[in-house]
């Protein structure tokens, strides 16, 4: 596995998105982050929208064929969902989803974008002859006012790394509660988070042993932190050792904002004798209101997307035999200090022929 720490769809530029691990006391998980660098908070919170002003992120997302073609297919192959409807595009970016909807016959589309990209989106809409159908509104969903009381459809590509990183989901739910007509639809309407376990000895050894001798200097004190920094990376499907288990399915049309914070149990069953070095999280997205259910997966066995997968390295190497199980739970919550960050508590145990272990780790994605 090749390490690539880059930005997610929720804040994509060529800058690095760092996913930090904290294995300290539980106060970290409760949002007590008094020692955090103030600059980190500013970067994550205040520069979130600014990062979307750069073209690099939009190029990456548009070139993600799984992502963009899935939305195009949903709209073009199910025009009955869009035709003659009032549509709200939340986090419109370049306006590509709005353009799809306009071409599918929407009565009008309100494209809301908070970053400077809104100005570019207006130019794009005009260049393609849709200025009479698409209105681009610059601002935060929570602060703007629509010129109409209700919309028939809300569409958004809100998903982040680990599905919930950067917390754009809350913005979609706010828009749904304020503007969606009774009986209206949200696209997509379902999102599911999964977990599995992988063997990754080569990369983990390389990552850890590197710190023993860095140009002749001993930096082994960094080892433990290096082992436990989650990575956003592409996982080879052949590395998967266990089955995959569903942690949570969210119904975007019905859920409350607080439902995105949860604790879910899991039980992973080994499919072969091997060693486990990390757990891997990925998500699926579904459009169930289509004539035929449509969607896509970001899993290791599916076509690669810019979301990749989220790899949570374990401190220990687990020796597991076919049929043995790793049981545990994962708690996911918004960071109390910065709700765009995600705190993860992972508890797991293995009582096997060659390995008996029980651990709890605390991770932070920021």
UniProtKB/TrEMBL annotation:
It is found in: Nucleus. The keyword Signal does not apply. Pfam families: Methyltransf_25, PRMT_C. GO terms for cellular component: nucleus. This is S-adenosyl-L-methionine-dependent methyltransferase. It comes from Arabidopsis thaliana x Arabidopsis arenosa. It comes from the Eukaryota. GO terms for molecular function: histone methyltransferase activity; protein-arginine N-methyltransferase activity. Keywords: Methyltransferase, Nucleus, S-adenosyl-L-methionine, Transferase. The keyword Aminoacyl-tRNA synthetase does not apply. Residues 189-353 form the Protein arginine N-methyltransferase domain. Its main location: nucleus. Residues 87-184 form the Methyltransferase domain. InterPro entries: Arg_MeTrfase, Methyltransf_25, PRMT_dom, SAM-dependent_MTases_sf. One of its GO terms (biological process) is methylation.
């Amino acid at each position: 596995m090749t390490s690539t720490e880059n930005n997610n769809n929720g804040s994509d530029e060529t800058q690095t998105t760092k996913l930090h691990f904290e294995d300290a006391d539980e106060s970290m998980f409760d949002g007590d982050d008094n020692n955090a660098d103030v600059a980190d908070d500013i970067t994550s919170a205040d520069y979130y929208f600014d990062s979307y002003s750069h073209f690099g992120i939009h190029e990456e997302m548009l070139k993600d064929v799984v992502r963009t073609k899935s939305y195009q297919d949903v709209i073009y192959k199910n025009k009955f969902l869009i035709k003659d409807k009032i549509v709200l595009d939340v986090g419109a970016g370049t306006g590509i989803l709005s353009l799809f909807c306009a071409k599918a016959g929407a009565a009008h589309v309100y494209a809301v974008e908070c970053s400077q990209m809104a100005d570019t989106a207006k130019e794009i809409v005009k260049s393609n002859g849709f200025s009479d159908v698409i209105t681009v509104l610059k601002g935060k969903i929570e602060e703007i006012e629509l010129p109409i009381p209700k919309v028939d459809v809300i569409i958004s590509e809100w998903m982040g790394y680990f599905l919930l990183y950067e917390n754009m989901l809350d913005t979609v739910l706010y828009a749904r509660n304020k503007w969606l007509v009774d009986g209206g639809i949200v696209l997509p309407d379902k999102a599911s988070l999964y977990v599995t376990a992988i063997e990754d000895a080569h990369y983990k050894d390389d990552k850890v042993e590197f710190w023993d001798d860095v140009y002749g200097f001993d930096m082994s004190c960094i080892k433990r932190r290096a082992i436990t920094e989650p990575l956003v990376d592409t996982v080879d499907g052949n590395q998967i050792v266990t089955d995959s288990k569903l942690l949570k399915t969210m119904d975007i049309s019905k859920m409350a904002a607080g439902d995105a914070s949860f604790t879910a149990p899991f039980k992973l069953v080994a499919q072969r004798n091997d060693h486990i070095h990390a757990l891997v999280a990925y998500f699926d997205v579904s459009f169930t209101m289509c004539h035929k259910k449509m969607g896509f997966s970001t899993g290791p066995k599916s076509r690669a997307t810019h979301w990749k997968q989220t790899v949570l390295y374990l401190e220990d190497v687990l020796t597991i035999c076919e049929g043995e199980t790793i049981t545990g739970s994962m708690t996911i919550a918004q960071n109390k200090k910065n709700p765009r960050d995600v705190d993860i508590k992972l508890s797991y145990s293995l009582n096997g022929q060659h390995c008996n272990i029980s651990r709890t780790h605390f991770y932070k994605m920021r």
